[in-house]
Amino acid sequence: MRARVLYATLTGNNEDVADVIIAEFERLGVQTIKEDISDVEALDLNPTTQDILVTVVYTFDLGTLADEAIDFYEDLPDVDLQGVTYGVAGSGDVYYGKDYGTAVDILEEQFSKTAGIHGASGVKVNLRPDAKATDELQKFTQALVQKASNN
């Protein structure tokens, strides 16, 4: 099984989130690639190159999507993700109230427009992954692998 983890980060927090997910994939024997989302063209995604696709992005100004992920987001509905299990996670800051982690919700909504398979509910991490968030991210990753295994 193969997974691809795409991330965007300003502070390093989302790379930490991605690393927790990747460590769990590797513990489960899943071959994993980690890439900066700004280096990936959504339209170049091929469903035969990964079984699982995870995006890890931060929420920017007033609950908007990170600039690095906008092109990916805009192209996503036109991407063939038939048979690909997807999941979304991201760090944020609860200080921002209703805008906390909205990038996770925005990307999950966009993924729902593809033929991909929703593998697990999105995970929002307050700042850096602590022990509780790490556990939640590990369970998220396990659910993705389980869902992909059943397809």
UniProtKB/TrEMBL annotation:
> InterPro entries of this UniProt entry?
Flavodoxin, Flavodoxin/NO_synth, Flavoprotein-like_sf
| Cofactor(s) the record lists | FMN
**Keywords in alphabetical order:** Electron transport, Flavoprotein, FMN, Transport
Q: Which domain of life is it from?
A: Bacteria
SUPFAM superfamilies cross-referenced by the UniProt entry:
Flavoproteins
Name the chain's protein: Flavodoxin
Gene3D superfamilies attached here? 3.40.50.360
Source organism per entry reads Weissella koreensis
Q: State any single GO MF term.
A: oxidoreductase activity, acting on NAD(P)H
Protein task: Low-potential electron donor to a number of redox enzymes.
Family label: Belongs to the flavodoxin family.
| Pfam families for this protein | Flavodoxin_1
